[in-house]
């Protein structure tokens, strides 16, 4: 059977930066509170004319360039997003059109902040079975479009962005293992209580915004991120000492620190982009991966553990040799 290996990574953050000082002007908060409770100092916001597909295309082209691969050779696109340009068609099909790689399957995955980890698992299975050989796996969100800017419990956290990897068939792993989970009982802790089929009232402008019970989500996130790391490592007869870099969902610096502590992992081995990215939902893991690849922290041969956690709840992990 084939293995799937990352041959290139890419990321894109929109130009406009929103600082904590600017948020102080809009809502009742302080820059100190935001930094102390979340670690976020700034986040990027898509321009009014920029869509999730625009962000995804930029990240995808950078990943393809890093992989030295002609976009037309991609035979599968799996894209995690919660904020598609349209109800349909999917962002993945529009990205396929922009890249000119027609014919292979292209589809979006909705697992909120775990979207990229879900997409990696799926693309890996396509490559392992020989159904695809060169996959583009993307996490992209314009999450700030579904943020209520009056809600100080959420608007401080989120930003926009996209990250992508090219996965290619290889003789050696590559992806060692991946595990996905979901538990729908937690819906109302983190959700947008509106939707196409769920009674969306076009006249209620505030009907399509994120609602979150932050401290409850926080507790589940910390426990889950520890447990999935231990589960996937145990399943592969490995320990945390075998992991060179942990790349968790970038939800809150305190969540990253607590996860590292519970796993007995030095914080220096956790890739942390919370300060400059905020929480970019499905983009957070591939963006952090790309940052650490490009600044030279992550080297070929390193063992990486990617972890996602998001609304649903959904969660999952990917263990790989880079
Ligand atoms: O991506 C999916 C996963 N998402 C997450 O993992 C998010 C997890 N949750 C969090 O990151 C944190 O819960 C938050 C950063 C959202 C909130 O931090 P917290 O330490 O859990 O605060 P809290 O919600 O328990 O609120 C503590 C206090 C409250 O005031 P009272 O009721 O004690 O008077 C809040 O009203 O802090 C207040 N507060 C704020 N104060 C200043 C909440 N937001 C703000 C704010 N500025 N922006």
Describe the structure.
The protein has 322 residues and is α/β, with parallel strands linked by helices. The protein folds into two domains: 170 residues, 3-Layer(aba) Sandwich (Peroxisomal Thiolase, Chain A, domain 1), CATH 3.40.47.10; 146 residues, Peroxisomal Thiolase, Chain A, domain 1 (3-Layer(aba) Sandwich). It has nine helices and 13 strands. The strands form four sheets. Strands 1-7-6-4-5 form a five-stranded mixed beta sheet, sandwiched between helices. A four-stranded mixed beta sheet has the order 8-13-12-11, with helices on both faces. It has a two-stranded antiparallel sheet with strand order 2-3. α3 packs across α4 and α6 packs parallel to α7. The relative contact order is 0.20. The structure holds oxa(dethia)-CoA.
Task: Assign a percent range to the helix content.
Answer: 25-40%
Write down the secondary-structure element order: EEHHEHEHEHEEEEEHEHHHEE
Query: Which cofactor or ligand species appear?
Result: oxa(dethia)-CoA
Low-confidence stretches: none
Return the CATH class of the largest domain.
Alpha Beta
- End-to-end Cα distance, whole Å, is 19 Å
Largest sheet: 5 strands, mixed
- Tally of strands: 13
Average of pLDDT:
96
- The side-by-side strand order for the widest beta sheet comes to 1-7-6-4-5
Find the CATH superfamily of the largest domain.
Thiolase/Chalcone synthase
Radius of gyration over C-alpha positions, nearest whole angstrom? 18 Å
Strand content: 15-25%
Number of domains: 2
Query: Which overall shape is indicated by the principal axes computed on the Cα atoms?
Result: globular
Counted by DSSP, the helix tally is: 9
CATH level 3 topology of the largest domain:
Peroxisomal Thiolase, Chain A, domain 1
What is the CATH architecture descriptor of the largest domain? 3-Layer(aba) Sandwich
Decide which structural class fits the backbone.
alpha/beta
């Amino acid at each position: 059977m084939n293995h799937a290996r990352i041959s290139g990574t890419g990321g894109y953050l929109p130009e406009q930066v929103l600082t904590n000082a600017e948020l102080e002007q809009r809502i009742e908060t302080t820059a100190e509170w935001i930094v102390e409770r979340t670690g976020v100092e700034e986040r990027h916001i898509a321009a009014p004319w920029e869509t999730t597909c625009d962000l995804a295309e930029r990240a995808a082209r950078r990943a393809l360039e890093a992989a030295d691969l002609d976009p037309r050779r991609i035979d599968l696109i799996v894209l995690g997003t919660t904020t598609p340009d349209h109800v349909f068609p999917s962002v993945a099909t529009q990205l396929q059109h922009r890249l000119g790689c027609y014919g292979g399957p292209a589809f979006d995955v909705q697992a909120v902040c775990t979207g990229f980890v879900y997409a990696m698992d799926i693309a890996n299975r396509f490559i392992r079975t020989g159904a695809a050989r060169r996959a583009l796996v993307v996490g992209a969100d314009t999450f700030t479009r579904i943020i209520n800017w009056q809600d100080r419990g959420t608007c401080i956290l989120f930003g926009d962005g996209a990250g992508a990897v090219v996965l290619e068939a290889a003789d050696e792993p590559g992806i060692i293992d991946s595990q996905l989970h979901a538990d729908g009982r937690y819906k109302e802790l983190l959700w947008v209580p509106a939707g196409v089929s769920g009674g969306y009232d076009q006249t209620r402008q505030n009907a399509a915004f994120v609602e979150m019970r932050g401290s409850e989500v926080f507790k589940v996130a910390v426990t889950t991120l520890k447990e999935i790391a231990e589960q996937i490592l145990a399943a592969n007869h490995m320990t945390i000492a075998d992991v060179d870099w942990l790349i968790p969902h970038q939800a809150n610096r305190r969540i990253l620190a607590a996860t590292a502590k519970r796993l007995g992992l030095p914080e220096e081995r956790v890739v942390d982009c919370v300060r400059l990215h905020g929480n970019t939902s499905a983009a957070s893991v591939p963006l952090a991966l790309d940052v650490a690849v490009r600044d030279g922290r992550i080297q070929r041969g390193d063992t990486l553990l990617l972890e996602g956690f998001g609304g649903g709840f959904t969660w999952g992990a990917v263990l790989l040799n880079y």
